[in-house]
Fold these 3 entries.
Entry 1:
Amino acid sequence: MAYTVQRSAAAIDYLRALPGLTRQGRIILQVGIFDLLRNHCDELRSDPSRRLAPGSARFRFDFVFRDAGRFWRADCIADDSAVAYGVIRLEYLDCQPGA
C-alpha cells in the first residue's frame, strides 16, 4: 500500500538548516525517505525491533545515500498512529556524513 507522508515542523526546519549537503543531496535525501515511507512502510513498521518501545506508534529506520562523493546516513523516526487513514508522519531526522 502506498502511504501519504507528512513531515513534522521540526523535520522541515532540520532539512532547511542541514549544513554540508548540496541542493541535489537534499533532494536525494527527501525523495529517498519519502519513497521508503510511501512504498515500504509496511515492511519497516512490521519489525518489532524498530519500535522505540513495545506498543509505540513510532519506529526508527535509516537511509544511506551519497552526495558530492560522500556517503551520508539519515537516522529517521516515523509515527504510524494514523496508518489506518493511509498517513505516515516523519517526526525526527538526524543526518550525518560518513567516511
Note: The chain is about 30% helix and 35% strand.
Entry 2:
Amino acid sequence: MLRIFLLFLCALVLRADVASVRNEHNLEKRSALALDEADAELDAARKAYSDGDLKQFRDRAQTVGELAELSYQSLDETGKKARRSPKWFKRAEQRTMQLLRRIESLDRDVSLEHRGVVDKLRARVSTVHDNLLHDIMSKK
C-alpha cells in the first residue's frame, strides 16, 4: 500500500515539474527551462533504472520527450524566425544534441529488453533536434 502511495506521489511531482515549466510566460525562457528539466529527468531516469524501478524509468523517459517537445513548441509559439533571431533556437539545438548524446549513453547501459523505451525517447528528441536545425538553416 505504501509503495502505491509513493508511486502516486512521484507521478504528481513529475507532472508538477512539467506544469511549473509551462507556467513560465517568457517563451524563450520556457524553452530553456524545459531543456534544463529534461536534463534532470534523464538523470532521474538513469537512477530509476539502476535502482530497478522500471515503471519510474519509463515515466521519466516519457517526461524527457515531453519536455523536449515543449521546448520546441515554446520557441515555435514566439513567432520569431530562427534564421533572423537564432539565439534561443541555437541554444535549444545545442542542448538537444547534448541530450541525444546522453540518451545514447543510456542506451548502452540498459538491457536489451528495455531499449525500446530509450529508442522511443531518442526518436522524439531527434525529431525536435531536426526541426530546430531545419528552422535555423531554412531560408523561409
Note: The chain has a mean pLDDT of 87.
Entry 3:
Amino acid sequence: MIMQNHKATGKKGELAAREFLVKNNYEILDTNWRFKKAEIDIIAKDLSEDVLVFFEVKTRTYDYYGNPEDFVTERKKQLMLDAASRYMEKINYDWAIRFDIIGILWKDDNNVVIRHYKDAFFM
C-alpha cells in the first residue's frame, strides 16, 4: 500500500508539473522518457528561450527531512545526463539545453507548493 501511495503521489506531482509548465510557456515534448536505467520525467521546450529542458520532478507529502528537490542524487543527475545525450541524438538536436528540477510539496489538495529550479545542475 505504501508503494502505491508513493507512486500515486509521484504521478499527481508529474501531472501538476506538466500543467505548471504549460502555463509558463513550455511545450511538453515527452514524459517518462527512458534510456537504459534512466528516466527523464519531462522533456519540454522553453518557448521563451528556445531551449530544450530536461526535468526531474520530485514530489513529497511532507518536508520533515528536507524539500523534495533536495533528494535529486548525483547518481540521478548522471543518469539524466546520459539519457539526455541519447534523446538529443535520437531527435538530431544540437542546440541549447538545460536541466531543471521541479519540487512539489503536496500536503493535501488545498496545500500544494511548486518550486521550479532552472539550471539545477551542470554538465
Note: The longest strand covers residues 97-108.
